[in-house]
Design goal:
222 residues; alpha/beta
Length: 222
């Protein structure tokens, strides 16, 4: 485990109004599905900013992507863990690749299939030069689990910056959500590649989506 970062993790920090507007406009663009990659040699050229969404199976990755885009069915959402089995690339405004990754951890799929896409996932996260940020999704009902640390440790070693995003924040009671937030903040300090901002989101209520869109838009100007 790397030395803990010295900075404090902040919850849902504000952006300048122009960044918020840039994020809103970016995510109103019509997303274009590019490719579903089952092998690294299928990845498109790394010619633009690239972000991805990673998390345990059934954490709500595809649902969050659809909510950010304000569209249903762009990313395939399912209650069945392991439905996403490829790296699904979407082009946004010809400036950004948004990637929906397979879930890690438990999945309802054959063992060899799961092993193959987990190997692909880890190779991608550790070796994609154009990847600017990984948004690591954490279920607000459960907090950070050992399998999350496994992925975050990999990102630490690869020096790939990641930002923690709590999903399904509308599900737990307020006191339970507060406990999860405290646990996530504490666990995040174990990782040197962790971004200091933590987003708390709900695809159902829209909580945190504006800030997350602005986080992405900011990457296009950095």
């Amino acid at each position: 485990m790397a030395d803990a970062p010295s900075f404090q993790f902040t919850l849902d920090p504000d952006h300048e109004p122009e960044t918020v507007e840039a994020g809103r406009l970016l995510f109103t663009r019509e997303p274009r599905f590019v490719i579903g990659c089952a092998r690294l040699d299928q990845l498109p050229p790394g010619d633009r900013v690239e972000i991805c969404f990673a998390g345990r199976s059934n954490v709500g990755k595809s649902t969050l992507i659809n909510a950010l885009l304000g569209r249903k069915g762009v990313a395939r959402a399912s209650n069945t863990p392991g439905r996403t089995q490829q790296l699904n690339y979407f082009d946004l405004d010809e400036r950004l690749y948004l990637v929906d990754l397979p879930g890690y951890g438990f999945a309802q799929a054959p063992k060899k299939t799961v092993e193959a896409w987990q190997t692909l996932l880890k190779a991608y996260l550790a070796g994609r030069a154009s990847l600017r940020r990984v948004f690591c999704l954490i279920d607000a009902r459960h907090g950070v689990k050992p399998v999350d640390h496994e992925i975050m440790d990999l990102l630490d070693r690869a020096a790939v910056g990641f930002q923690l995003v709590l999903t399904k924040a509308d599900k737990p009671a307020a006191k339970d959500l507060a406990k999860t937030i405290a646990q996530v903040q504490e666990q995040a300090r174990r990782h040197v590649a962790a971004h200091p901002a933590i987003r708390i989101t709900s695809s159902e209520t829209g909580r945190g989506l504006e800030g997350l869109r602005a986080d992405v838009a900011e990457l296009l100007t950095a």
